[in-house]
């Protein structure tokens, strides 16, 4: 339950029985860049803020506050809003505002399994059918998942990823190998084919 202070836009969360919010993968509607929701997201100021790593309050200047789930989960961005627009269309100004603010570096979005915060959408994020199924990634540890997403999906080299994370290249290579085995993805061969 969220309580709004009548004097300032401060938010407090009451105890909740569900520890992880349920949200569906974000899918952009056709011509979403021409929508009123997208226009509002870019024009109106957001007076809200984070509630948890996965949720935030979006309070656009010309509307009411709404609770929004906006979190990376596996290889997917998940979203949900408490407003009627989301309920009927799976798209609204509040979720659009989160996307806009994330793309411009105004908010950070947390990956639910790895805990890594992303200031902008990561290179590996896909919105088409080219992303792995959630089932493929469920058995991976946080470190394996992070290596898989970055090296396998974003095509970042093992050595480059090792430098970014302060790990040894051998450690990253082992994480990636185990992740590929668990996710049942073919290992690329040095010559460009599959091993």
Task: Describe the 3D structure.
The longest helix has 15 residues, at 169-183. A 5-stranded antiparallel β-sheet has the order 3-7-6-5-4. A two-stranded antiparallel sheet has the order 1-2. A two-stranded antiparallel ribbon has the order 8-9. The protein has 195 residues and is an alpha+beta fold. The N and C termini lie far apart (52 Å). The protein has helices at residues 36-43, 84-89, 93-103, 134-137, 142-153, 158-165, 169-183, and strands at 2-4, 11-13, 24-25, 49-50, 55-58, 66-73, 76-81, 109-110, 117-118. 33% of the residues lie in helices and 16% in strands. The model is unreliable at 1-20 and 190-195 (pLDDT under 50). The chain contains 7 helices and 9 strands.
């Amino acid at each position: 339950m969220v309580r709004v202070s009548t004097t300032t836009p401060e938010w407090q969360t009451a105890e909740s029985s569900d520890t992880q919010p349920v949200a569906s993968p974000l899918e952009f509607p056709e011509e979403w860049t021409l929508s009123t929701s997208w226009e509002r997201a870019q024009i109106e100021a957001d007076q809200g803020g984070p509630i948890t790593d996965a949720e935030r309050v979006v309070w656009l200047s010309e509307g009411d506050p709404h609770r929004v789930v906006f979190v990376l989960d596996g290889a997917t961005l998940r979203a949900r809003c408490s407003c009627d627009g989301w309920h009927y269309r799976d798209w609204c100004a509040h979720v659009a505002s989160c996307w806009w603010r994330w793309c411009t570096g105004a908010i950070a979005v947390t990956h639910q399994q790895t805990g890594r915060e992303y200031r902008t959408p990561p290179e590996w994020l896909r919105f088409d059918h080219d992303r792995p199924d959630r089932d493929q990634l469920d058995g991976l540890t946080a470190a394996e998942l992070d290596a898989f997403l970055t090296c396998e999906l974003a095509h970042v080299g093992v050595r480059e990823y090792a430098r970014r994370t302060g790990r040894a290249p051998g450690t990253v290579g082992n994480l990636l190998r185990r992740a590929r085995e668990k996710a049942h993805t073919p290992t690329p061969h040095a010559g460009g084919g599959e091993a």
